[in-house]
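#onboarding

Welcome to the new folks! Below is a worked example of what a typical request in this channel looks like: someone posts a single protein sequence, and someone else replies with the predicted structure as tokens. Don't worry about understanding the tokens yet, we'll cover that in week two.

Example request:
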Amino acid sequence: MIASGHAAEGPDATGELSQSGPVGTLPLIVVVGPTASGKSQLGIDLARRLDGEVINADSMQLYRGMDIGTAKVTADEAAGVPHHLLDVLDVTEEASVADYQRQARDTVADIRGRGRTPIMVGGSGLYVRAAIDVIEFPPTDPQRRAALTQRLEDEGPAALRAELRAHDPESAAAISDDRRLVRALEVVSLTGRPFSSYMPRRIHEPAVEPVVQLGLAVPRETLHARIAARVEEMASHGLLSEVEQLVAAGLRTGRTASKAIGYQQFLDVLDGGRSTAQAIEDTTVATRRFARRQETWFRADPRVHWLESAAPDVADRALEVLDTTLEDLGFRRR
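Example response:
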């Protein structure tokens, strides 16, 4: 039984999830969608209504100090709702989907074990899939990867792609960036299996079931305007100063963090490569492109229930979806 907490005004402001299925298996609610679609606020609203706790599923929000440029929720915005898997990495560390999978699933189990509702919120599609779906991660070997990276520099991507095509034509046709090309060859050489054989299936991991996925839809023009306004706000709230502080913490040596949208552009400002105005424009363009990729990723999953982000009663509509879906899974909200 989940007792309602932090109740808001309105007819659906309080609620409990009452279980008719196996004891201790509370639903995992997942809120996805493109950047600037309102995921964080919906996650908080649902947590307040369902006595829940939020689990971050934004790979860049894993990093300590990367706050302004990732639109990380502040303490005031969280309004007392516990948030997990924020600020768990230094900017010099490389984010790992495999590590996140373990940490996220452990967090889901911990929240459920305390009788509360886990609510995963974020737009990093592979991280979400890793947490909720059956997915196997192949082994890694830093020395093997380093050797392949050196070959990439010496021989060029065409030679490595031809080698991959001989062992894994599906991956060779699908992979467009050099880093994944190296990773695919690393996996083939270590396991003898095609890299494509490790791709996730749309089957929920039994350990985290039941799962309900909610997606936030935003018209393209509206989303573009939101992104532009958000980047302007980030700049005015001190993104350049944040980047300066992170440089002192080793940002330039971080393989993942230094490539984050916004941070990469504002690092160039520090280096004299572009103006602040140009960095704002370039960050806006890059973020819009990223949002399109997110939209494509999440729209491809038929299990996502889509809601209009701009609807004033979007939280109520989300609860209606939960009522219907959870009833099929052996739960009910009352």
